[in-house]
């Protein structure tokens, strides 16, 4: 079977932040204290002396995220949540923002209140179904990397449909709990032009799955297993065991 190659506008792709291994991330713990107090005055968060966040503080997607969203808008709230998980964000026409090796980051990004988030790299983060709620209001999000996320599963993929109008790049490589059923939920994302579904251990037939995803998203370049991987061979194609003696 001859597979067609699709050209992708690589110049339009958002480059990943220059970093080595994926950042270590904090779990979503409901017992964590909020990073910002809803009643704190804005003057205490001024740009001249940004307040770093400690590793013992956690942004909860329920209370603190809602407070940030009401005050600064969904893009600032979503960026803060991703940064607190150890990920990186890129606002439109700005440089990548990521926490340092101690998990701390500056609050200078609050000045981008009217600038949309265009890329999120949450690779290796402990983001789950509930945590994805912070990304769904990002109406101009073009690139999303969820590589090697231990809690991203089929249910998470079923929740991405609100991003259908903007999302162009999606990486799910190395996620241990994504199967064929979850990938079928991506049919909503017809704006995708680049998708990485390589190294998914829960996918039983990687080659056939890639073919089906390519048919489901005809305008998207799909990275993953070779289309022959996992296909069953016919009796005439089965390799012969030359080490076994022939029956008499």
TrEMBL record:
One of its GO terms (cellular component) is mitochondrion. Residues 1-24, 36-55 are annotated as: Disordered. GO terms for biological process: mitochondrial respiratory chain complex I assembly. Belongs to the ATP synthase subunit s family. Interacts with incompletely assembled mitochondrial NADH:ubiquinone oxidoreductase complex (complex I). Required for the assembly of the mitochondrial NADH:ubiquinone oxidoreductase complex (complex I). Involved in the assembly of the distal region of complex I. This is Distal membrane-arm assembly complex protein 2. The lineage of its organism: Eukaryota, Metazoa, Chordata, Craniata, Vertebrata.
């Amino acid at each position: 079977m001859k597979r067609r190659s699709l050209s992708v506008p690589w110049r339009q792709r958002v480059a990943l932040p220059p970093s080595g291994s994926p950042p270590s991330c904090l779990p979503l713990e409901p017992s964590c204290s909020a990073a910002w107090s809803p009643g704190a005055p804005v003057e205490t968060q001024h740009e001249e002396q940004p307040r770093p966040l400690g590793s013992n503080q956690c942004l909860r997607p329920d209370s603190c995220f809602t407070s940030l969203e009401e005050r600064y808008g969904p893009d600032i709230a979503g960026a803060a949540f991703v940064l607190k998980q150890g990920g990186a964000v890129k606002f439109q026409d700005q440089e990548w923002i990521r926490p340092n090796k101690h998990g701390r980051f500056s609050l200078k990004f609050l000045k981008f209140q009217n600038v949309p988030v265009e890329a999120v790299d949450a690779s290796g983060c402990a983001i789950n179904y509930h945590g994805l709620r912070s990304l769904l209001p990002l109406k101009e999000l073009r690139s999303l990397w969820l590589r090697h996320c231990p809690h991203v599963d089929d249910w998470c993929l079923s929740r991405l449909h609100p991003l259908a109008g903007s999302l162009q790049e999606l990486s799910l490589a190395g996620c241990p709990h994504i199967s064929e059923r979850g990938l079928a939920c991506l049919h909503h994302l017809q704006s995708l032009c680049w998708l990485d579904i390589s190294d998914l251990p829960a996918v039983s037939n990687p080659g056939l799955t890639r073919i089906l995803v390519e048919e489901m998203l005809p305008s998207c370049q799909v990275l993953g297993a070779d289309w022959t991987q996992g296909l069953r061979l016919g009796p005439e194609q089965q390799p012969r065991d030359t080490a076994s003696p022939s029956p008499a």
